Amino acid sequence: MHPALLLLPALGLILGPRVWVNRVLREHDRVQDLPASAGMVAREILDQHALHGVQVEATDLGDHYDPHARAVRLSRHNIDRRSLTAVVTAAHEAAHALQHAEGYPPFELRTSLARVAQVTGEIGTVLIIAVPVTYFLTRRPLPPTIVGGSALAMIATSAAAQLAALPTEMDASFKRALPMLEAGYIRAEQSESAQRILFACSMTYAAASLSSVLTAWPWMRGSAALAVGMKTVSAATEKIAQKEAAQAPASHDAKDAGTARPKRPVSGHGSIRGGAFEALVRGFAKPLIRGFLSRT
């Protein structure tokens, strides 16, 4: 089967919801006829639940709730708007503050996984950057276990954080934000539109989760290929070291023993250059790539 036949449906599942979400949000952002702005709605909801210490701030990073700063941050486009999209978004973000205040378990899990994903992302980035630096300094590449493990950890923790966000987002949208909006911030005839906006926002997290899973899946299935490749690397490196040791000049007699050139080190911090390096690449790159493709 041609890879495009699998790639196109996956792209449709990931990009399709985002296109639809943007259309829904723009559709309900045109009319501004609600009695309160998004910033006012968020502030009133927080005050009604005695969360006076949670701030409502404008931001350029998009609408979100920051649990570390305990702040509901609304985009500059939405914070002063009285459109249905802006007000529904504000209620949704304020609902996250309510989850945080009561220690809602899925929210706590999502926050913890987000911290882990951030740390693994930073460590993985450092290790990936260190690959060329380490080679130029020591003439030896980092072990595949380190490179592959760091890449898999980055992808897997990100996917876990995205999946953990789904129950939190659904609870914030339909069990918290929607009832509060229907209690006095929107008209009865606007309830169905508000549900469409909340559902659309949830679809963005579903698409992000699907994208993370699709990214992590080939790495998880390719772990066997990675193990085979690591064994091949070890064997190829040993053969090259033995060949170089056999070709190294030995001392001719006892008189030249003190001045004979030492053999190249078989192990340690020796370099792999020229034809030896090419042989190493040919020895493990092709089996690794073939094994990975056969399992994905």
What does this entry look like structurally?
Strands 1-3-2 form a 3-stranded mixed beta sheet, covered by helices on one side. The protein contains 8 helices and 3 strands, in the order H-H-E-E-E-H-H-H-H-H-H. It is mostly helical and 296 residues long. A hairpin with a 4-residue loop joins strand 2 and strand 3 (71-75). The model is unreliable at 222-226, 251-255, 263-274 and 292-296 (pLDDT under 50). Helix content is 70%, strand content 4%. The longest helix is centred in the middle third of the chain and has 39 residues, at 144-182. The radius of gyration is 29 Å and the shape is elongated. It starts with a helix and ends with a helix. It has 2 domains: 3-115 and 165-220, no CATH class; 224-295.
List the total number of helices: 8
Output the radius of gyration. 29 Å
Please outline the major beta sheet.
Answer: 3 strands, mixed
Based on Cα principal axes, name the global outline: elongated
Question: What's the arrangement of strands in the largest beta sheet?
Answer: 1-3-2
Instruction: Spell out the helices and strands N to C.
Output: HHEEEHHHHHH
Summarize the structure.
The protein is mostly helical.
Could you give the topology of this structure?
Blueprint: H1 3-27, H2 38-48, E1 55-59, E2 64-66, E3 71-75, H3 84-102, H4 105-138, H5 144-182, H6 191-221, H7 223-247, H8 274-295
Parallel strand pairs: 1-3
Antiparallel strand pairs: 2-3
Helix pairs in contact: 1-6, 2-3, 3-5, 3-6, 4-5, 5-6, 7-8
